[in-house]
Structure formats: structure tokens, C-alpha cells
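To whoever picks this up:

The nightly regression suite flagged Eukaryotic translation initiation factor 3 subunit C as changed. Nothing in the input moved, so I suspect the structure step. Input below, exactly as stored in the fixture:
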Amino acid sequence: MSRFFANTYEYDSGSSSSEEDLLSASEEELMSSSSSDNEDLQESQDEEASDDSFFDESAAESDVDSDDSDGRPYGPDWFKKPEFRKGGSTGANRFLKNADYSDSESDDEGKKVVKSAKDKLLDEMRSVHDKIDVAEMSLDFVTILSELDSTTRLVTRAQQQNYGIPNIFIQVLAQVEDVVASTSQQDITNKAVAKAYNTTKQRVRKIARDYEDIIAKYREFPEAFSTEATEDGGAVQDNFAESSFALAGKNAADLSSVANATSESDFFTALRIVMDSRGKKGTDHQAQIKTLEELLDITKSPYETILAYLNLISFRFDSSASLSYQPIDQWKASRHDIAKLFDVLETNIEQYHVSEFAPRNDFVEDEPQTNEQGIKEILGSVYSFVDRLDDEFNKSLLNTDPHSSDFLDRLKEEQSVYNLILRSQLYVEATTIAQPDLQKRLARILTRRLDHIYYRSNKLVAITERKAWTSLREGAKSQVTPFEEEINDAYVFKLIDTLHQMLSSQKDGSQRKRAALYRIYFYALNNQFEKAKEMLLTSHVQSSINYSDPPLQILFNRAVVQLGLAAFKLCLIDDCHQILNEVSTSTHLRDILGQQSLQRVANNNAFSNGSIPSEQLCLPFHQHINLDLIDVVFMTCSLLIEVPHMAAFFSGIKVKRIPYSQKSIRRALEHYDKSSFQGPPETLRDRVLYSAKAMQRGDWEQSVSFLKSIPTWSMLPNTEEMIANLSKRVQIESLRTYIFTYKRFYSKLSIEKLCEMFGLDTETVVEIVTAIITDFDLHASLDEGSKFVTFEKGYEITKLEEVAVKLAKETKYMSERLNEKKYVGNSRRQE
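Regenerated output under the current build:
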């Protein structure tokens, strides 16, 4: 609220600093003089009141009448004291009468000075400096940390008001740096102080990094940063105006000179100003981007064009560093600039190379010296731009609704990103001479290339490769992954093997593991189960995966799930059940596969407590593995394995126990039997459950019909072939279940009848019956003509005996519970 609407206003109050910023310098002087005169007037009135009580009473009455005649003052009278409002002539006479006394009184007390917001801010910083001086003597780092935070907030206020960097702030930073450097952890015994010491050490290092140049100047010329006041206080104001906030107008002057740099002679001058402004607070990135775009139009040599593009692309990414992802238009502009940079580099590859290992050039005006090969190396990383572009692309996918058309439109840009990745690989190959260095420099690029193709089928990879090579300039070649005229399945598998082989030679263990898991996932996805399984066992990744980074753990879980699905597609039910048993029964399946939403990861990072960016713990929607498919596959495997096993167990056959899991069909059947009402199947789990009930009755046709009604199978390739194999396996397991369940009611079973019931040929039924008799030591035999299977009586238990056994187990369990409750009750009474 402005002072013009305040009932009372105190010039010395600490809350007035923000209001005083609204006044100009002339207004401050006017208010200062008015305040001093009014205070002198008030003092003279108080003195006269003590000398002439009668005059004081009449004056008071006059004041009340003049002030309250209309309820409250208005207009110009609002700002005047009661003595000077309209009709207040008595007050004016008193002022003239006691002028001498007022002067003498003010001489005794001294004039009160109105301080501006700048002076008050400096006073607060000096107070912080003094408190740190006192705390330094006793090594009170709790106070030092608190005051350091205070001065940081003060300098932020100064920058918000365009004041610049106060000298006293630089002194405080240097002072805290010296205190931390001269103190050892062993000198501190108090835990709270030790904790504050470590925090102070980290914080001052981080803050000083932004002001290292100014701190270096302070340590070299400390007298230039002096803020000591003279007797009349003038030195502080002069130093404050010339030194403390001299940096306030520097950025504005730089921007002005950059804006005027439109001629060819001013190219490097403008470029230097833009480069120096990068990373500084208050930099207008959009203005700098516009300036660099204008500088591209006046470049006259490839060297200037390369420098302009290197800085332009960097500024584009910096402009969106604080955003969740780079805006689409800026992303497309960055992609366009990177492609143009590649055009310039490839055209002038015999003269200029951009390399991360090039020597630093402090003077951009001078071109680098040629090396032994006659090449001028420019410090920079082309791949880092492609890497950042790909990261921003993934962020945009994670922040886009996957069920909207915007996601599909955004996904179409992935091919252009892959084209740039391949282009960066070919450029690094062309600019690297030593072969050992080539493998090291290509490691990140090849990993990124694998990251884009490992989750696709071989046909999609072939299309992607064909488009990528077509987009390159004519005559482009690769030593590592040579292009072949015909891109078929053999070429794709060879490409994956080559990329894995290149990365396997790296010293970085995480890169080797990641490459191995990429390869395993790809082979499993493309129906190469045996090879993928062998790769997983020989890589020994599973032995150390628990100590790896969370993104690598997510990739391992995805590879294991894909391996299980590959076994199911080949109808290898036992292998699939064994592989998926641990992963699919996890309560956080979505989390361990990296398929949770970005917001959920940001709110609850279960892996690393926020130490890893949330984007690395999530995968775009098009890379997800359908969770319903995993659930249905595991329950179907459980159906084919556990239903015959349960039938054998309840018929009295000694069988090996199967590990109990939360998502097994046995648990679902137990819950189904306990429920009082069973409706028709609605969910995917219900269909598998009803299929299991039909299998228990020996009705394999109805069991197969329930499984065929599951729409999730369409997500698997060759659905018809897979359903046919699955149906045959259901027939076999239904036959086994029927024999285990009903053998107690028969003395003989006709092989021909079994073939008719389960739609199997005689040879298959005989083979199954023989295996049952052998594996389970069943008291039965086949006659010589294999027409009947004969069961020996006296060994199996009847249905009544089975119920009695169950009842005995339940009774034993209940008695144990009752005894336990009695024991607990007696123990409590004794206590």
C-alpha cells in the first residue's frame, strides 16, 4: 500500500523500504526536508505546551474543531499536520514564536536522515558481515550458515531491483570461504555445528562459483571493494553508486551493442558478447537467439558459420532448461539447425573438424591452428546436440497424452532423430583417425542407436534403417555398420550383433550390460527364445543387477518379461511360468518396468529418492509392454501347470509342491470356491478362471473357447498359430486332469474312449498315459494291445476320505488357534 493511503507513516520503519522504491531522488529529498521541519515544529509545540497551559487547551480545542469539522481531512490537508491545515493559523503563529527553541532542540538530538532502500540493503549486509565476524571467533557455523542465507536473499533483492552486486556481498563470500578453508572437520565436536559446517562448505562453494571472477578481483585488489564510511557519510554513498552496483547496467549495454551488430566487421564482437552472456542471470535467451540468427546471415566463412551454429543450438536448449520439455517449435528449430550444422561440417570436412578433444581457443576471432593432418579442430560436440535433442523428444512424449492424436504426430518425428544419430556416427567415424579412440568415441552414439531399435520387430527396424540411409548424402559410408543394398532380417540381426560387439569392449560396465540386455530383448521379441536365453545366462547380468542403476534394473526386468513372452509364443509353458513367476507377481509391476506416469515418479521416486531424473525411470508409451498381456500369459501358464497338479494332489498322489504366488490360478480357484455367487466371466482373469473350471471337469472344448475369447492374444504375432498350439496343450492337460480326478471311479478306461473325448490320436493318448504311470508311480497298467488302462484298487482314496482328510486338517488348525489364544490370555492375566 502506498504512503498516500496510510493513516500514519514512519520513515524509519523497516517495512518502508519497498515503498520508498516508488519515489524518485527529488521526491526523497523533499520528503526528507519536510519531515525534519515537521519534527522541529512538533518539538516547539510540546515546549510551549509546558509553558502556557491555557494556550495549549485552546490550541487543542482548535485542533479538534479544525480536524473533525467535516469528520476527517480531505484534499491537500490530508498530508499536513493539524497545525498547518486550513484554519490552523494558531499553529503557524506558534511556529514563528518558538523558532529559536526548535532550532536548539534539533541541534541537541541531531537531524534524522531518511535512507533509501539501497542504503538500507547495504546496512543489512554490513550487519550480516559483523555477525559473521563474531561467529568466526567461536566457529559458530550455525550462525554463519544462517547469515549466509540471509545475505543471499539480500543480493537477490538487489538484483531484482537492478542494483547489481554489492561489494559487501563479495566480502562476505570471501570471508566465509576463508573460514571454511581454515577450519577442519576434526576441530568441531558438536554434531549440529558439524552438520552446519558441511552445509556451509557446499553452499558457499556453489554460490561462489557464480561470482568467481569478482571474488578473484577482490582478493587481488581488496581496497577497491572498501565500504568504510567517512565522518560525513559521503564515502559510503559514493562507493555505493560507483562500485557496488556498477554491474547493473552492464547487461543492458551489452544487449545494445549486440543489437547494433549487423555489419560483417562486427560479427566476432557481437558473437563474443553473446558468448559471455551465456549462463548469467537475467539473460534474455530469445533476444540472443534472434541475434545469432541474424549473425548467420552475415557470416562469410565456414568457420564463422560453424561458430554461429554451435552457439545458436546451445542457446536454444538453454532457453528451455527450466521447462518440463522443449516447446515443439523450438525443438524443430533445433533439429533444423543441427541438420544445417552437419551440412556445413560435411561440406568442409577436409578443413574443419568439431571435436570434444580439440584444444581450447580463447580468442574466437582467430581460427585454430592446423594439426598434422592439416585440419583445424574446433572445440565442441556435435553428438551432444543430438543427444540433447533426443532427450527433449523423449520428455515431450512423456508429457503428452498417449491416447491423443498429438502423441502420434509427435511420434512421427522419431525417424528424423534416428537419422541424425546415424549421421553423427558417420561424422565421428570420418573425423577419428586412431582405431582405439574410435571405439571409445562411438560408445555413446551406438548405445543411443540401440536404444531406438531394440524394442522393434526386425521388419520395423529394416524400414527405419532404409529411411535413415536414404536421408544421408550420396556416398556416405560406415566402417562399423556398413550399409548393404538389401536390408533384410539377416542384415538387422547382424546390425544388432555388431553394435553389441562394439560396446562389449568398453571399460564401462554399465554400457556392456545395457548392450547385452538390448540384444537379449531384441532376440526374444523376434522369436529367438533359445538364443536369447543363452545370451542371458552367459552374460551373468542377473548376478549383479541388484547393485546396478535403476534404469538398468528396469531394462533387465523388461528383457526378462520379453523372454517369458517369447517362451509362451513357442508354447514352452514350463519355461514361461518359471521366467515370469517372480516378475509378474510383483505388487509394483508397473514401476519395475518403467511404465508408470511421469507425475507419479516425480511424487514418489521409489528407486533413488530423487537422485536420478524422473525421465530416466519412465518409458514412452509406445515402448510399454502390455500389463494385461503379461497377466493373462502368466495365468494361462499357471492354468496348464497347476490344474493337473491340484488334481493329482487331491487324488492322493505324492507330487512336488509348486511355489504359491498371489496371481496363480490355484489362489483364484480357492477364492472362487468360497464365493456364494458366480456370475458370467467379465474380465480377462475371469475367462482364465472359467477355463480352469472347465478343465477340471474334463471339458477341454469349453476351456479352449474361454481362452479364445480373450482379446489380448491379438497383441502377439502369429495369433492363430499360437492359439492352435495352446489348444493342443489344453487337450493334453485336460486328459491328465481327467485321469487324476476320475481314476478312483474306474477299474478300466478305454483308450479309444479317451481319444474320442479329448480329440487326440491313439498314439498321443498312449504316450500320455504311459508317462503318467511312470512319472507319478501310478498303480495302473496298459494291456498288451493298448486298448485299456487298468487301475489297481486299494491305493487311491475315495471322495469321502478326501473330505475327511480336509476336515481333519481344518480341525487341527482351529485347535491350534484356540490353544494359542488361551496361552496369550493366561500370559496377560499373569502380568
